[in-house]
C-alpha cells in the first residue's frame, strides 16, 4: 500500500491543504476584526466616553470564527500540542502505533464535535436564538464550527493513512 507515491492521494492532500489555507485566511481576517473592534471600543470609551455597543458579542463571535478556521491548518503545520519528549523515547514502531492511536482518537473527537455542533446549529436555527444586545443570530457560528471540522477530519484521516502505510513497511 504505497500512499506517498499515489498521485490521487497527493492531489487530495493538496486540495485539503488549499482549503485549510483559505480557512486560515478567514481566521486571520477575524483576528484583525477583533483587533479593530477592541481599538474602536477603547478609543471610543476613553476618548469620547462612548464605548462600542456590543463589542463583547462581536469579539466573541469573531473568536469562534478565528479558532475554528485555524484548526486544520494548525494540524497540517504541526502546531497542535504534542508530548514529544515521551514519544521520542519510544522505538520507531512504538511511535507509529502511538501516533496511529492518537490520530484515531482525534478523528473520532473532531467528527463528534462536527456532528454535535451541526445538531446544535439546527436547534439554534429552529429556536431563533439571538444575542441579547445586538440581536445577532447564533446558528451560523455553530454551522461554521461544524464546517471547519470537515477539513480537520480530512487532515487527520490523511495522517492516519500515512501512519498505516508507514506501519506496513
In short:
It contains 6 helices and no strands. The chain is mostly helical.
Describe the overall structure.
- With 169 residues, the protein is mainly α.
- The chain has one domain (7-168).
- 79% of the residues lie in helices and 0% in strands.
- The chain has six helices and no strands.
- Helix 2 packs parallel to helix 6.
- The chain starts with 6 loop residues before the first helix and ends with a helix.
Q: Give the averaged pLDDT, no decimals.
A: 87
For this structure, the quaternary state is single chain
Helical content, roughly? over 70%
Number of strands: 0
Roughly what fraction of the amino acids lie in strands? under 5%
User: How many alpha or pi helices?
Assistant: 6
**Cα Rg:** 20 Å
Order of helices and strands: HHHHHH
| Structural class by SSE content | mainly alpha
**How many domains make up the 3D coordinates?**
1
User: What's the N-to-C terminus distance?
Assistant: 9 Å
Instruction: Tell me, briefly, the overall form.
Output: elongated
Please mark out the parts with pLDDT under 50 across 5 or more consecutive residues, or reply none.
none
- Largest sheet: number of strands, sense, barrel closure: none
Amino acid at each position: 500500500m504505497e500512499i506517498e507515491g499515489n498521485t490521487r492521494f497527493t492531489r487530495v492532500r493538496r486540495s485539503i491543504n488549499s482549503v485549510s489555507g483559505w480557512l486560515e485566511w478567514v481566521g486571520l481576517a477575524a483576528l484583525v476584526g477583533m483587533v479593530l473592534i477592541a481599538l474602536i471600543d477603547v478609543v471610543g470609551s476613553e476618548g469620547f466616553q462612548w464605548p462600542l455597543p456590543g463589542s463583547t458579542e462581536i469579539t466573541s463571535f469573531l473568536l469562534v470564527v478565528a479558532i475554528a478556521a485555524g484548526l486544520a491548518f494548525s494540524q497540517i503545520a504541526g502546531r497542535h500540542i504534542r508530548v514529544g519528549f515521551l514519544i521520542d523515547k519510544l522505538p520507531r514502531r512504538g511511535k507509529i502505533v502511538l501516533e496511529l492511536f492518537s490520530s484515531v482518537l482525534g478523528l473520532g473527537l473532531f467528527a463528534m464535535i462536527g456532528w454535535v455542533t451541526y445538531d446544535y446549529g439546527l436547534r439554534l436555527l429552529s429556536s431563533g436564538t439571538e444575542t441579547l444586545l445586538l440581536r445577532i443570530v447564533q446558528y451560523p457560528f455553530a454551522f461554521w464550527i461544524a464546517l471547519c471540522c470537515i477539513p480537520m477530519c480530512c487532515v487527520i484521516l490523511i495522517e492516519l493513512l500515512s501512519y498505516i502505510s508507514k506501519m506496513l513497511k
